[in-house]
Amino acid sequence: MAISVDEAVPAPPVPDDARRARRRGGTGRAVVEVALLTVVAVAMLFPVLWMLETSIKEGQDIYAVPAKLFGFDVTLDHYKDVFVAPGGGRSDLSVALLNSVVVAGSSTVLATLLGVPAGWAYSRFTLKGEKDQLFFILSTRFMPPVVVVIPIFLMYRSLGLIDTQLGLILIYTAFNVPFTIWMMKGFVDEVPSEYEDAAMLDGYTRLQAFWRFTLPLLVPGIAATAVFALIFSWNEFVYAIFLTSSQEVRTAPPAIAGLIGGSTVDWGLVAASAVVFALPVLVFAYMVRKHLVAGVTLGAVRR
Amino acid sequence: MTTTAGHPVREAATAQPAPGRPPRLRDRRLAVAFISPAMLLLLTMSVFPLLWALYLSFTDYSATGNAPASFVGFANYAEILTSPEVHQRALTTLVYVVGAVGLQTVLGFGIAYLISRRTHGRGLLTTLFLVPMMLSPVVVGLFWRFMLDAQFGVVNSFLVSLGLEPVEWLTRQRTAMLSLIVVDTWQWTPFIMLIALAGLTAVPKYLYEAASIDRASEWFRFRNITLPLVWPLLLIAVMFRAIEAFRLFDLVYILTNGGPGSSTETLSFHVYKVAFLGFNTGTASAYGILMVLVVIVLAQLYLRYLNKLKEG
């Protein structure tokens, strides 16, 4: 830190008047800052509030010009439409949401099973070309999905994996594994390796030491990592739209996007299904808020 | 010490308590056993497909045709690199990346700075600001499409009530690009904010105290303490966003579908059109490989820089 000589010389005491003026300037400034933050908060949250509002508005109020911010008729019909088909029975959207649960859930379990041991191994052992391996692993996550999906599409077509949940689960696992490894390596780094050394001196093997002493300490980290993986696969759209097509297989993002395909769009239904789809994500994200910085940078930045 | 049969004295003296093979070798085996399943998956699902795309990029293969692929050398690459259409898409992508990431950086850092100066309600504010980032691009794209609708969109409704002309946000060339940038900025400003905030709260308090004892001006403090300490982390966030913006597909697909005309077609979107609407799989593969090269360069820069930051 460079501070020049003039600035370093102590100044004469500030007269009372000036101090008061500065304080007043300070509060004025604080007011401006709070006002600015409020404006930004409104701008950031308005679309979300508008979505919530649209999802409970009567049909004609949704298309009202000028838009009705207040005083609209409230209905829960759109939410009913999300889950119940017009003729009764389960709606296409509810099937898609269930598919999303299956696909996101299984791929998260798989990515965790593959990523946690690998993250531990990268943290504990010095391996040949370890840094390069870790770089390579994260690089695969940066590949443009539209490009990767071309050969994956051909590959799946010859393996019969097109339009199957297994296909989606595999590709989602592959795209969550790099994240899981990086994230878990960070969590393992925080557990002193001395615990394992001590356990091994007591006659446990390395594997037993990992299983009995390190793994229990990693549980919160594993949970946070799994929640992020779950969010990533839940929100994924590109692979889903290219690799699945049938009603029974496709997940919620393409199903919701499909709602605007026709000539008339039921925006109330779009809003309600978007709320139903996004709510779990927000709840989960709130649960892992302590790890958000690491999570959203794919485990690369830790604070 | 008595030696057991077959064990020389020296080895027995230094042997570990655990019997069997030396621990280091077993550690290595354990590491291989733990890492290889994950690596195997990445090799089959990421590397192998890319190698296949690399092979296809030298052929005239079409995913719909029955004709076997024939080798065409670098013709696909030559076609892509000299195509004015591709140049146009590259320019569109550049405008989008620079515009969106630039706006996000300025806004995100500004908000983080304002939040870091507050003592009350910081947690609540941060949590609220982060909502857009956690939403799926599908939800974000659909919803903004509704809000930006020319007839009954709430944005135009506001404009009209302010006495302004309504704007055809998504159906005019200029405003379509602007809309894309605005929506992306809405979604990803929180990302920059989150990371900038992490950097800002990590600045040691005593530096500010020292500066205020020295009666340093606000600007001086910002310029000489805050910025240099937060900048490295901010740059990480910016590079990360730039890579993400470069490969953006879903938001374009939902919000504008590349239109009007081709004014919002990014490179990713164009690859999709060539591959899945034109069925020129060979050409699309070459196109994709070129994009992958760009991403690899960007990712390498990012990771190098990250590594430097961690060690420094």
From TrEMBL, chain A:
Signal peptide: none
GO biological process: transmembrane transport
Keywords attached to this entry: Cell membrane, Membrane, Transmembrane, Transmembrane helix, Transport
One Pfam family of this chain: BPD_transp_1
The ABC transmembrane type-1 domain, residue ranges: 97-288
GO cellular component entries: plasma membrane
PANTHER family reported in the protein's UniProt record: ABC TRANSPORTER PERMEASE PROTEIN, MALTOSE TRANSPORT SYSTEM PERMEASE-RELATED
Protein name listed in UniProt: Carbohydrate ABC transporter permease
Lineage start: Bacteria, Bacillati, Actinomycetota, Actinomycetes, Micrococcales
From TrEMBL, chain B:
Top-level division of the source organism's lineage: Bacteria
Membrane topology classification: Multi-pass membrane protein
Signal sequence, start to end: none
GO term, biological process aspect, one: transmembrane transport
GO cellular component: plasma membrane
Disordered as annotated region, ranges: 1-23
CDD domains: TM_PBP2 (cd06261)
Alphabetic keyword roster: Membrane, Transmembrane, Transmembrane helix, Transport
Major location (coarse): membrane
Location in the cell: Cell membrane; Membrane
Gene3D superfamilies, A to Z: MalF N-terminal region-like, MetI-like
Residue intervals passing through the bilayer: 30-55, 94-115, 127-147, 188-208, 229-249, 284-303
Coiled coil: none
InterPro entries: MalF_N (IPR035277), MetI-like (IPR000515), MetI-like_sf (IPR035906), Sugar_ABC_transporter (IPR052730)
Transmembrane is among the record's keywords: yes
Protein name as annotated: Sugar ABC transporter permease
